[in-house]
Design a protein that fits this description.
Blueprint: E1 2-7, E2 12-19, E3 22-30, H1 33-49, E4 56-60, H2 66-83, E5 87-90, H3 97-111, E6 120-122, E7 125-127
Parallel strand pairs: 1-4, 4-5
Antiparallel strand pairs: 1-2, 2-3, 6-7
Helix pairs in contact: 1-2
């Protein structure tokens, strides 16, 4: 399953394109205000460069930067709605493309895609 994965919960962030548990492309991004400015345009450029049309979107849900998670979740939710594809949340993990691809794919196989509603922050985790 072609998956667009956002990790926006830390100082080191990134966009990962994966097919199943295999990374296809990875673009590291900075945290802070720069992340908000670049996330959408860099996502568009990466998808276009790899002619990649995702079937699933995944977003890190924490622990980590509350604002960073919300920025990533807003874009993930908008894209999933526009493309009419499912999206899932996964617990933040070290920024390693192979680890993230495997983690997200395993979570999807075990739990499927479930609605992700970000309600409130509790001990650096977004609860849904």
């Amino acid at each position: 399953m072609k998956t667009l994965i956002f990790e926006t919960s830390g100082e080191k962030n990134g966009i990962l394109l994966a097919d199943g548990g295999t990374p296809i492309a990875f673009l590291p991004l900075p945290g802070g205000p720069e992340l908000s400015k670049r996330l959408a345009s860099e996502t568009h450029a990466l998808l276009k460069a790899h002619a990649f049309l995702p079937e699933l979107i995944a977003i890190a849900t924490g622990p980590g930067s509350y604002t960073g998670i919300r920025v990533g979740a807003a874009l993930a939710k908008a894209l999933a709605f526009g493309w009419q594809i499912p999206f899932i949340g996964y617990p933040s993990a070290p920024l390693d493309p192979h680890l993230l691809a495997s983690l997200v794919y395993k979570k999807f196989l075990e739990e499927g895609a479930t609605p992700l509603i970000l309600d409130y922050l509790d001990q650096n985790h977004l609860l849904h």
